[in-house]
Amino acid sequence: MPPHLFTGGKVEGEQGAVIHVVLLDPNTGNVVQVGPESVAKLNVVVLEGDFNDEVDDDWTKEHFESHE
């Protein structure tokens, strides 16, 4: 994989499915809809690998950086 990947295109899920990203309040489990966090910007990072079988979805910083 090249060090930088710029597609300039739309990011989609399998078979063109729309990808939704939401921020959940850890205390209530509800989607954050008001306040500064509700308009946060998201950076998408491409990682090399097959992550369909990941059991642990909570990565440490070190684990994440080892897959960049």
Automatic annotation (TrEMBL):
Q: Give the superkingdom in one word.
A: Eukaryota
User: In this protein, which residues make up the domain named Calmodulin binding protein-like N-terminal?
Assistant: 2-67
Q: Name one GO biological process term.
A: regulation of salicylic acid biosynthetic process
A GO CC annotation given for this chain? nucleus
**Pfam families referenced in this protein's UniProt entry, alphabetically:** Calmodulin_bind
MF terms from GO for this chain are: calmodulin binding; DNA-binding transcription factor activity; sequence-specific DNA binding
Q: What is this protein called?
A: Calmodulin-binding protein
User: What is the source species?
Assistant: Trifolium medium
